[in-house]
Design a protein that fits this description.
Elements: E1 2-6, H1 11-22, E2 27-31, H2 39-42, E3 47-51, H3 59-66, E4 69-74, H4 82-86, H5 92-107, E5 113-118, H6 134-146, H7 148-164, E6 171-178, E7 180-182, E8 190-193, E9 206-208, H8 209-221, H9 223-229, E10 235-238
Parallel strand pairs: 1-2, 1-4, 2-3, 4-5, 5-6, 6-10, 7-9
Antiparallel strand pairs: 8-10
Helix pairs in contact: 1-8, 3-5, 5-7, 6-7, 8-9
Length: 242
């Protein structure tokens, strides 16, 4: 069984693919432009590259795509360009997630498929008391209106919380919420919390992309860590951010 990774050519997605392969996991990467994957990854025997846009695949194609997968990881995001932020599709992450989950349900897996979604600390977990100051509520409301990707991230998280929930027989999920993303070359110590420990707007922390990839791979491959965070929206910070 393979791990399906969407958003595999992104800055975090490439790191996740590499981390999973290092752990001996077969990986299936869905990409529109395979050349954007590093050559060392493309040539790896355990990596299967599927050139496609997920939103263009029909139900039968999606079902075939997920039928041999034990886990799905989404590192999808909007490109930080005018077209990427304001162009179509406005609901890239949420719609892709919805279609993948629908395809998984048609396969009736014997055990729930693990789904790990990379999101952002700016999205609240409405299942927990995560109070926001008036200033932060106003700032996030403005961001929601002016920057469509934020609303997309909220819709994706709310879909898992509401439409999939905690007792779905085909899927179980974790939403990983990093703070301001930075690049580091190696994994070091990092911290994972159930909720933010600081304001994402007025006192943001930092999260290395390689730490996000490492934690997502842990969730997929480590049963103890999965059971700890299943159905939750953990926040990840670099060590010392509290």
């Amino acid at each position: 069984m393979a791990v399906l990774v969407v958003g595999a050519t992104g800055a975090t997605g490439r790191l996740l693919v590499a981390e999973l392969l290092q752990r001996g996991q077969p990986v299936k990467a869905v990409v529109r432009s395979p050349e954007k994957l590093p050559a060392a990854l493309r040539s790896h025997a355990a990596l299967s590259v599927v050139q496609a846009s997920l939103l263009d695949l029909n139900r039968a194609e999606l079902t075939s795509l997920v039928s041999d997968c034990s886990a799905i990881a989404s590192c999808l995001g909007h490109n930080l360009t005018l077209r990427g932020i304001f162009g179509s599709p406005r609901r890239l992450v949420a719609e892709t997630l919805r279609r993948l989950c629908g395809a998984v349900r048609t396969t009736h897996p014997p055990v729930p498929i693990r789904l790990v979604l990379m999101n952002t600390v700016g999205v609240r977990n409405r299942d927990l008391p995560e109070p926001l100051s008036l200033g932060q509520r106003l700032a996030i409301g403005l961001i929601r209106l002016l920057l469509p990707p934020h609303a997309d991230n909220e819709a994706a998280a709310d879909y898992l919380r509401g439409a999939i929930g905690q007792q779905d027989g085909a899927l179980s999920w974790v939403v990983v919420r990093p703070d301001s993303l930075i690049n580091d070359e190696k994994v070091s110590e990092y911290e994972v919390w159930p909720s933010p420990t600081r304001s994402a707007i007025f006192n943001p922390g930092k999260t290395s992309r390689i730490h996000v990839a490492h934690f997502m791979a842990d969730l997929i491959t480590n049963d103890v860590i999965w059971q700890r965070w299943q159905g939750q929206m953990p926040v990840i910070y670099n060590k010392g951010i509290s």
